[in-house]
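Researcher: Next entry in the queue.
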Amino acid sequence: KKQKLEKSYALIGSATVNLFTDGDTTLFNLENTSSVLGSSVNIRYYRIDTPESTGGVEKWSKTASLFVKQQIIL
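Model: Structure for this entry, 74 residues:
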């Protein structure tokens, strides 16, 4: 699905999910590649801190990642 992303209260356009990095970070591809941000942006969710599932995998990290993925692709 396409999502609207905001950064510093300024609309940065429509995006599609490229990669669910872990439970608190997702990489999005921007549809408008002329953006000053480039063609993709790594978003870390505000006030969400989940166990790491990249590098050193922590307990419950895969569950947290799956939960966030399910919420975004609804």
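Model: The chain has a mean pLDDT of 77.
Researcher: Noted, moving on.
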